[in-house]
Structure formats: C-alpha cells, structure tokens
C-alpha cells in the first residue's frame, strides 16, 4: 500500500526543500547524504553506480552499526536525523519512503516533533528535551512508501526521524496544514494564498499530471513540472481549483502565472471569492490568458472572502497563483486564538 491511497497526501509536504525545509542534523551519513531526504522529486536509482563509498543511493544511508550486533529487536540503538519544516504546521501524516533500499533499509522507524521559536542551531536542537512522539516505533517495508497517519493537534516546527538500528531511507514526507508565525504576517498586505502563509488548496477538478498544491509554493516555477497540470478535457466543462486563504481577507491583486506552459496553458481563467457564509462574489471575470506569462490583475471587490475558486477554461496548466490582500481584524483575532490553542 502506498501513501497515495491516504487522504493526507492531498495536503502539502511541509518538509520539502522547495518550501524552505532543511535537514539540519544527522548523527551519521556515511553512505548517502541526509539532504536527500527532503528533495521534491521521487528517488531514482542506477544499478552498479559506485562511488568511493560504494553504491550511490538517492537517499539517506548510514553505516552498519556494529554496536547493534546481537542487540534485542527493541533496542534503542538507532540513527537519527532532524528536519526543520519549511513552514510550521499541524501534521496529518508522514511517509517514510524506502525506495530502492532493499537489503539495507531499517527494520523500524519512529518520528517525533517539537515546536521552537527562531532558528536554533543543530547543537541546540539535539540537546532539547520535550520531543513528542507522533509516529511510535513501527516496522517498515523495504523499497516502499510507508505511510503513517498522525493524530496530533499540535503545531510543530521540527521533526526527528529515527531508524532502528541503521540503514537507508530515500525520502521523508511530512504532510499537513501550514500554521506560520502570525507575527510575520502583521507587517501589511501579503499573499493570502501562499502555503508558507497558511494558504491551502482544499479541492480541485483534476490532478492527473501534477499536484495542485504546487501553485501555492514559494518562488517562481523552474520547469513545467513545478506547477499544476490537468488532463485534457473531452467534455464541455472546465477545470477548477479551490484555495482556502490564510484567513478572511480583502484581496487587492491576483497573479496567475502560466510560466513554462507554452502549448497547454488555459485559454482563460476567472476568480470567484467565497464569503464566510458560503455566498460568492466575482473577483475577476473570465479573462484571456497567454502562454508562458505572469499575469497580474487588480481586484476591485472590497468584500472579505475566506476562499477563492479559480476556474480554468477549459483545462491546462498553471505555474503559480498569488492572491495579495489584507486580513480582517476578526480573522487576526481568530488566528491568534487558534495559534494559542496549538501551542
């Protein structure tokens, strides 16, 4: 069973390098670098590709722990890596992917989490107490995506991955809902749709070629695969994506970016705001889009909305969606109360 069968994979991976995640420490990375754990692409493998340390693996691989020889199956002997999430958040599920590790994967793993302010050093993180177990020690299968649902209402900034006793893990995926530090959102208008600010794709019509959360990622897309692309429609309907904003806000500008989509961008798009009571307001009428172009549109609607639906006509791909605006006072109050509960 793969992680794709779990609903939590619809949520963004908060640990991704492209979202700002980093592997800040590992006790050992003798065979393969710890940084591979959070690369956005799937792990690859080329047989009989040897470096001076042995077969090259696209993952994190440690040496054989000789201290574990003859140890009991539940020994605490283990290797450890600490990942700083790209944006703090509530974790819904974790995937420990052992792709290509067949005779050298760890028998068991566990995952813990912690919330800390600022940017502590690796030395400070390793000395911290108060880590909370979100995935208890569990068996994993080699060359497989191993999914674990997380039942935790906490807001976390770092996760600690342990493998018992040693071995290789290709990727660590930490799916959840972003909960950024509200102090960083008080400086004025900002992108209310951005993942790093707490925006989230809640639904879409189709995600055949790529994940819709991509359109809310930081920075510019580098290739077509960094965006969201649907299958070709063979009916009279159109594709759409629905975005929940950081909180209720008034929007002033939208950016619809079709960069790298040269022959498969939508012919047109519209934006509809959804109010807190579920009613709708037009933000951008159906407007022609150009291929491989960053489009910027002013929004004149002064009504507060909590979600936005982008309709793409009839189908195609988008690189990014930006929705700039300001939170309402009520939204700020609710978000502060929510963050206090999660702390």
UniProtKB/TrEMBL annotation:
EC annotation from Swiss-Prot or TrEMBL: 3.5.3.4
Family annotation (Pfam families): Allantoicase
PANTHER family, sorted: ALLANTOICASE, INACTIVE ALLANTOICASE-RELATED
NCBIfam families cross-referenced by the UniProt entry: allantoicase (TIGR02961)
EC top class named in words: hydrolase
GO term, biological process aspect, one: purine nucleobase metabolic process
Keywords from the UniProt entry: Hydrolase, Purine metabolism
Family to which the UniProt record says this protein belongs: Belongs to the allantoicase family.
Protein name: Probable allantoicase
Pathway it works in: Nitrogen metabolism; (S)-allantoin degradation; (S)-ureidoglycolate from allantoate (aminidohydrolase route): step 1/1
Gene: alc
UniProt GO molecular function: allantoicase activity
Catalytic activity: allantoate + H2O = (S)-ureidoglycolate + urea
Domain Allantoicase residue range list: 20-177, 198-327
């Amino acid at each position: 069973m793969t992680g794709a069968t779990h609903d939590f994979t619809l949520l963004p991976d908060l640990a991704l390098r492209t979202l700002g995640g980093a592997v800040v420490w590992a006790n050992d990375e003798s065979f393969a670098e710890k940084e591979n754990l959070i690369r956005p692409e799937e792990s690859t493998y080329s047989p009989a590709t040897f470096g001076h340390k042995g077969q090259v693996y696209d993952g994190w691989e440690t040496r054989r722990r000789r201290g574990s020889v003859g140890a009991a199956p539940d020994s605490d002997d283990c290797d450890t890596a600490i990942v700083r999430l790209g944006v703090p958040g509530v974790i819904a599920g974790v995937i420990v992917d052992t792709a290509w590790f067949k005779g050298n994967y760890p028998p068991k793993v566990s995952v813990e989490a912690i919330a800390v302010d600022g940017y502590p050093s690796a030395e400070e993180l390793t000395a911290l107490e108060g880590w909370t177990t979100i995935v208890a020690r569990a068996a994993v299968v080699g060359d497989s995506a191993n999914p674990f649902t997380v039942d935790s209402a906490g807001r976390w900034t770092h996760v600690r991955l342990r493998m018992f006793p040693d071995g290789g893990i290709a990727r660590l995926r930490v799916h959840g809902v972003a909960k950024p530090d509200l102090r960083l959102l008080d400086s004025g208008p900002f992108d209310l749709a951005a993942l790093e600010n707490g925006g989230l794709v809640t639904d879409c019509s189709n995600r055949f070629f790529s994940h819709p959360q991509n359109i809310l990622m930081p920075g510019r897309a580098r290739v077509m695969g960094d965006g969201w692309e649907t299958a070709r429609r063979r009916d009279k309907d159109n594709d759409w994506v629905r975005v929940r904003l950081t909180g209720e806000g008034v929007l002033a500008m939208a950016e619809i970016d079709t960069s790298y989509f040269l022959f498969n961008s939508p012919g047109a798009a519209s934006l509809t705001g959804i109010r807190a009571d579920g009613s709708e307001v037009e933000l951008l009428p159906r407007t022609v889009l150009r291929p491989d172009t960053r489009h910027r549109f002013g929004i004149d609607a002064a009504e507060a909305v909590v979600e936005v639906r982008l309709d793409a006509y009839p189908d195609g791909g988008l690189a990014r969606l930006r929705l700039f605006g300001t939170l309402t006072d009520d939204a700020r109050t609710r978000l502060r109360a929510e963050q206090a509960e999660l702390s």
